[in-house]
Structure formats: C-alpha cells, structure tokens
Amino acid sequence: MSTKYAVVSLPIGAFDTNDKDDAVLALKGQISSDNGTVLPFRVPDFKIGTLDALVQQADDLAKLESTAEAVVAKVGDSLKTILGGDEDRLASYKMVNDKPTEQYINNFSWNKIRYRADKPLGELIDTLSKELVTVDNDVKSKVNQYNSVKTNLATLQRKQTGNLSTKSLAPIIDSSLLVQDSEYIETHLIVVPNNAKKDFLKQYEELAPMVVPRSANQIAQDDEFVLFGVATFKKYSHEFLQKCREQKWTPRPYKYVEGGREEEQRELDKVTNEERKVCGEALRIARTGWSESVMAWIHVLTLRVFVEAVLRYGLPLDYVSALIKTTNKLAPKVKSALDSQYSYMGGNAFGRDKRGRVTKDDAAMSSDMMAAGLGGDGNEYSAYVYYEMELP
C-alpha cells in the first residue's frame, strides 16, 4: 500500500503548552498509531511581504505544487519505462540525496544553503519553478532520445530475427542465386507459406508469360515460410509479381550489394552500443531528476504551509507544523481525528451533531473561505492548515 503524507500546521495556542516539541507530542496523542505516525516538520520563518503579495503567493504555490507533483509522476514513469517495470531496481533508483525517498521525507529539513530563508518568498518560488522546468525538460529530452534509439534497435533486431516475410535477406542471399546484369531476365524473391509450397511449385510457371521454366529455387525455409527465387523476363515481371500477391505469396524486393551482410551487422552493433550508452545516460538523468523534483516538491509544500499559516493565523509566527505518515486507506481516519479535535478553529464553518460528530453547518462560509484560498487543497475547507502528499 502506497505511503501518503499529511502536513498540518496549527497555532501554538491550540495546545496547552508554549513549547513546540511538546505541541508535536500532544498532536501525536490525537492520531492513533494504527492510523499514522506523527513526525516533526520544521518550517523556517520566511520573510513576509504585504498581504496582497501573500494572497498571490498562495495561489502561485498551489499551481506550483501541482506542477511539482506532475513532474515527479512523469519522472517516476520514465524510470519505470527505462527499467522495464522492474520494481526492485526502480526502488534503488528512487533516491533523494542518496537516501530512500521515504527516509528523506521522514527526516526532511529545509535546505538553507540552496534556498536561503532570508530571501523574499517570491524569489524562492521563482527559483523552485525554474528548477522544476529544468528537470522536466532534461528528463523528457533524454528519455525521448532513448526511446528513439530503442525503437531503431528493435527495428534492426526484427530484421535479424523475424520470419522470412520480414527479416533482412542480406545474410541469406548469395550473389550466385540471382540473375544479375541481364538485359532481359531478372530474379524475383517470393515468400510462400509452408502449407502452400506444393501449390506454388505447380502454378508459378503459369502465373504470367515468359516465366523461366524450372527456375524456382528454394533458398531458405523457417517455421512459417519458404523463400523461393524465380526468374522471369523483365517485360512480364510486374504481371508475375501481381499474380503472386493475388495468391497471398509475398514478393520481397531485394538488390544485392557487395558487403551488405557485413554492413548490416556493423549497423546493428553500432545501434546496440548506442542504445546501451543512451540508456545509461537516461537512467542517470532520470535518477537525478527524481531526486531534484521530490526535493523541489517538499520545499514548495513547506512554503505553502508557511504562507497559508500566516494568512490564517496572522502574526506573530507561533505555529506548530507536523508531518503525518499514513496510507491512502487510513488518511480519512487521520483527517477525521484532527477535525474532531481542532474543528472549533473553523468557527461557524463547522458544527457538531447530537452525537458530537463534526458537521459543516454553514456552506456559504465554507465556500467563501475556499474562494479566499483557505481550503486546503481547494477541494474542501479545513479548519487548520492541512495538505496531503502522495508519491508515485
């Protein structure tokens, strides 16, 4: 079952303590260990601009997080495709800063060197946005190159390993089997199903005028087809080939080239080596892309938590944030437990029924709050800062 994370942020006043570590412990007490694990999630105190800027940044960060999630998913799909769906190898490539992805997220801390917290929020958002675009473009470009080379190699390999109706004839045809440099006669190569071999030998001389009698020469045979060489006068070649097609016998156009067999093998060897090289490059770039995009995503999410906390709770910056590790199935229980304890922070947006269960009794207010950008992921209003994150 895939891991899902929830990031929450609440004002310190929601707890019976002024100590953030104690507040995280209190939060742990609200979540059953069967439903999730609560971990500290440190959010730096970033530089705050104007209220108008914060509202715009909240919108920008919502869009940027969707972009980050999409980039991570695309990079994950690229790795899976390159590795042929090998889950064990895939796990070894899904590393962030040379650590398993879950380990990195469980122990996440803001990268103060790469993203200095004293920079304006707008500058940090712009930096993260550019990094995600770069990762997306780099991975997409290299994977497209790899897919192109892989397709080319598959085509060449089919020519070597297919049946007689499709494979290359260069390794099969010897120049002595063909009539060449004749002004009047030429050799045609016809592929016939094995079960039609006798019919072909009976009929080929009568298919068209001026077929050279007894010229049918069996050149090769595989599990499905027989390859014949037949000589005809050039004047009637077109008619002969058309009659063969009508009988479901396949003409194979072929022109003998000296050294063609060796040239095809050199081309196959060249593309095989190129495929290995580009595959290695694609894996390296996709692995780096996974690390970079996951890091960008969690940093974007951290900024979202900070901005929404400021918009919700105001100043001073006395908030407690935590990361809750859960699963898709158990996430609703985690949310329900948090709602049960902290729904009062939503004011009139939440109420309780006769059994004490949380209800939303003011749809208009919830709608207004969502429109103001205070609706978690935009799907449903939450009384506190709450975002979910699920890695592919």
UniProtKB/TrEMBL annotation:
**Pfam families in UniProt:** V-ATPase_C
Q: What does this protein do?
A: Subunit of the V1 complex of vacuolar(H+)-ATPase (V-ATPase), a multisubunit enzyme composed of a peripheral complex (V1) that hydrolyzes ATP and a membrane integral complex (V0) that translocates protons. V-ATPase is responsible for acidifying and maintaining the pH of intracellular compartments and in some cell types, is targeted to the plasma membrane, where it is responsible for acidifying the extracellular environment. Subunit C is necessary for the assembly of the catalytic sector of the enzyme and is likely to have a specific function in its catalytic activity. Subunit of the V1 complex of vacuolar(H+)-ATPase (V-ATPase), a multisubunit enzyme composed of a peripheral complex (V1) that hydrolyzes ATP and a membrane integral complex (V0) that translocates protons. V-ATPase is responsible for acidifying and maintaining the pH of intracellular compartments. Subunit C is necessary for the assembly of the catalytic sector of the enzyme and is likely to have a specific function in its catalytic activity. Reversibly leaves the enzyme after glucose depletion, causing the catalytic subcomplex V1 to detach from the V0 section.
Q: Which GO terms describe its molecular function?
A: proton-transporting ATPase activity, rotational mechanism
State the protein's name.
Answer: V-type proton ATPase subunit C
Lineage runs: Eukaryota, Fungi, Dikarya, Ascomycota, Pezizomycotina
Q: Where are the transmembrane segments?
A: none
Quote the subunit structure annotation: V-ATPase is a heteromultimeric enzyme composed of a peripheral catalytic V1 complex (components A to H) attached to an integral membrane V0 proton pore complex.
Q: Does the keyword Ion transport apply?
A: yes
Give an example GO cellular component term for this record. Answer: vacuolar proton-transporting V-type ATPase, V1 domain
UniProt entry keywords in alphabetical sequence: Hydrogen ion transport, Ion transport, Transport
Query: What is the source species?
Result: Emericellopsis atlantica
Q: Does the keyword Transport apply?
A: yes
- SUPFAM superfamilies of this UniProt entry? Vacuolar ATP synthase subunit C (SSF118203)
Which family does the UniProt entry place this protein in? Belongs to the V-ATPase C subunit family.
